[in-house]
Amino acid sequence: MGQLLDGKQLANIRAEVLQKQVLTLKMAGIQPQFCVINIGNDPSSKIYLKTKKRRADQIGIKQKLFQLPSNVTQKNLLELIDRLNNDKSVNGIMIQLPVPKQIILNEALAAIDPNKDVDCLTPANVGRLWQGDHFVEPATAHGILALLDHYHISLKGKNAVIIGRSSIVGKPLAALMLERDATVSILHLKTKNLAEYTKRADILVSATGHPKLVKANMIKKNAVIIDVGISRFNGKTVGDVDFEQVAPIASFITPVPGGIGPLTVESLMEQVVQLTRRNNGKQ
Ligand code: NAD
Fold first, then answer.
1. CATH tag for 139-261 (out of 3.40.50.740, 3.40.50.970, 3.40.50.1820, 3.40.50.720)
2. Whether the predicted pLDDT of 23 surpasses 90
């Protein structure tokens, strides 16, 4: 049976460290604050917002929510972003996904000041990420690397296979894993034979939202399995990996829930603190 990679426990350990860093900033008269722009009433977004707020409160970070109606115009959204860009008390800005169809997401993301881009989604910061000289990291990818580091799992020379090519998980994780000298493959919905690639993975990350996609016959013995997926299946929260089948073959495996989820939220707070320090000349 593979060893559990306990993301929840690591998130709590890192939150305690962060809490102390925030206290030091506050003693210097600096309050870390980030703003979340939420458009419309997506039910999952509501849950994520609550989770973020709870973690921010615990650490001492201010989270301000800007709730916009589902029919908000692009112009109004850009005006809000501009206002937050120019507000010195704001250290981080993020747009909660998904957004309604009338919003041109890439244009809105590009309008965010890269120095306040907590999600690392502006074109400038995505470019920096691939150049390997970034000052902010996307939360989920940051959390995955923190978890691997905590359990002393090196990426150097390993075959890392990522299922899912989204801008928030698969692509940025590939950039960071390349930087750590892994040989990275990114698979997606149009990949012809997933198992052909996944069977060669020393480290397999799945981020699709497709329950039980990863089966025992798709992985090699002693692989490290990172399950990012979150979906509802038979009334339960599950990941992409068929845990019962895969855990006995893996060397390490994340649970869902209690794996990457809590680390993502905590990592987001780390990015807020990182930007706060940077924006206040504290680095
Ligand atoms: P997305 O819909 O933007 O991307 C999904 C990706 O998976 C796409 O690239 C798609 O090509 C690929 N995919 C889907 N089904 C596939 C299949 N059957 N075979 C191969 N590839 C397939 O989603 P996202 O925002 O990247 O999120 C992915 C999952 O991760 C969701 O379940 C989401 O809830 C979860 N998520 C979890 C966290 C966390 O903190 N644990 C963070 C972000 C996303």
1. 3.40.50.720
2. yes
Amino acid letter for position 148: L
CATH of 29-113, one of 2.60.40.1220, 3.40.50.10860, 1.20.58.100, 2.102.10.10: 3.40.50.10860
Intrachain domains 29-113 and 139-261 with the same fold: yes
pTM above 0.90, yes or no: yes
- Distance in Å, CA 73 to ligand 1 centroid: 27
pLDDT score, position 250: 98
Q: Which residues of 153-189 are buried (b: 16+ CB within 10 A; e: fewer)?
A: bebeebbbbbbbbbbbbbbbbbbbbeebebebbbbee
- pLDDT over 90 for what percent of the chain? 99
Give pLDDT, residue 81: 98
Give per-residue pLDDT as tens, 213-265: 999 999 999 999 999 999 999 999 999 999 999 999 999 999 999 999 999 99
Pocket test for ligand 1, best of 8, 97, 121, 208 (most atoms within 8 A of CB): 208
The token duo for 168 is: 């928030």
| Residue nearest atom 34 of ligand 1, based on CA coordinates | 230
Query: CB-side exposure of 229: number of CA atoms within 13 Å?
Result: 28
Q: Is 19 a catalytic residue?
A: no
* pLDDT score at 257: 96
Residue ranges at the known binding site for NADP(+):
164-166, 230
Ligand 1 within 6 A of CB of 26: no
Among 55, 169, 193, 267, which is best to mutate for testing ligand 1, by the most ligand atoms less than 8 A from CB? Answer: 169
Assess whether pLDDT exceeds 90 at residue 283.
no
Q: Where are the domains positioned within the chain?
A: 29-113, 139-261
